[in-house]
Amino acid sequence: MSARPGSTVLASDYFHSYSVVGLLAVIGVLFVAVAFGAGRLLRPVVPTPEKLLTYECGVDPVGEGWAHTQVRYYVYAFLYVIFAVDSIFLFPWATVFAAPGYGATTLVEMFIFLGFLAVGLLYAWKKGVLEWT
């Protein structure tokens, strides 16, 4: 079997592009390592009892370390993330909807998508997730 004349050139171009990515990765790691090393060498180290205390939002640590957090905060955050991510899908839809030949199909697909969102919101409302008290 004989190799084609251009095959070695293509292989070297292929590996050259990976070597560029590898070189950039090594430079990035070195940059971060040098920055952390310089910070460690140049910072002042004066430990005091006040600096060794646990600090939480300006409040002195008093009592137990265990605190109960209500789940509804997480549920609201989760619902927000779901609807924020789903609303991002509306922007490409608007650009495709403006293109000729995609009007009716795109409109039907988006109403199906919005229907799924509405069913999810209705389910959350029926389960009482959206009530604050």
Largest sheet: none
| Total DSSP helices | 4
Rounded to the nearest angstrom, the distance between the terminal CA atoms is: 78 Å
Q: Name the shape in a single word.
A: flat
Beta-strand percent range: under 5%
Averaged pLDDT: 79
Quaternary state of this entry equals single chain
- Number-wise, the strands total 0
| Helix and strand composition category | mainly alpha
Order of helices and strands: HHHH
Question: Percent helix among the residues?
Answer: 55-70%
Low-confidence residue ranges: none
What integer value in Å does the Rg equal? 28 Å
Give the key terms.
133 residues; mainly alpha; 65% helix; flat
Could you explain the architecture of this structure?
- With 133 residues, this protein is mainly alpha-helical.
- Helix content is 65%, strand content 0%.
- The chain contains 4 helices and no strands.
- It has helices spanning 7-42, 71-88, 90-98, 103-126.
- The radius of gyration is 28 Å and the shape is flat.
- The N and C termini lie far apart (78 Å).
- The relative contact order is 0.05.
- The model has no long low-confidence stretch (mean pLDDT 79).
The gist of it:
This protein is mostly helical and 133 residues long. The chain contains four helices and no strands. Helix content is 65%, strand content 0%.
Topology:
Layout: H1 7-42, H2 71-88, H3 90-98, H4 103-126
